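STRUCTURE REQUEST FORM
Protein name: Pseudouridine synthase
Source organism: Cognatilysobacter xinjiangensis
Requested output: structure tokens
Priority: standard
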Amino acid sequence: MAAFRPPALDGVGASRVQLRPGDGATYLDALCARFPSVDRATWASRFSRGRVLGGNGHALDAQARLHTGGEVFYYREVIDEPSCAGLETLLHVDDDIAVVDKPHGLAVIPAGGFVRDTLLARLVRRLGIDDIAPLHRIDRDTAGLVLFSLRARSRDAYAALFRERRIRKRYEALAGPLPGVAFPVIRESRLVRGEPFPAMREMEGVANAISVVDVIERGDGVWRYALEPVTGRKHQLRVHMAGLGSPIVGDRLYGGACSDGPLKLVAKAVEFEDPLDGARRVFTSAFEL
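Status: completed
Returned output:
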């Protein structure tokens, strides 16, 4: 039997936390202690509106004594959450997967100050399916293709495409010229967390990130590149282009030339053999740089 999970509210799924005896005298005390960045009034409001649930799905009383701990579900909210004006396009949907063309500026999943207006929440509302999970992610500042699993029983079969590198992903980017580089070039490096958050950086050590970089078009001041991530590390393509000496245009985090427009990076195409029926699947983003 599948584990209980509360339904999504307005496209936003419930978060889960395991409380322990000693976290606090009451459920309200315990949650305030576990999440000190959320003030007590906010937690009290969530309790009063039935947005904090026990493992059985029943609303919890904020002042109920926490004797044994246990599983608690709660719904995250962000006051004055910014919204993305860009619209996503649903390129493909069947019983098992959805392929969505995401605009620049839209987060894929809830994180930080983005909860309700994310690609995942929009898709939950649009399809009326609570159990949706992204099979991979792209940055909020990146436009292009994202694949979602719509059914738990086939989820691992599609996740294996990424885990076993049986899916080809191609990105396009605009960046400055690299006249001294022999293309295509394979960039291999070790990526670790950098400063400031959420930056990544390259360091000495065994490579955990591999990208293939080629040139599509050579302009006067900006070249168009084809980028293929062999691995899927956070910010991998952005760091690798910066490491080659030409950060992507609009990439303020890694030194790219600033512009009024978005980061000039698009997840342009994906190709794979469907693990369920063996069909060759090819999808292309409509976003142009």
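Reviewer notes: The chain has a mean pLDDT of 94. Residues 50 and 104 are 34 Å apart (CA to CA).
Form closed.
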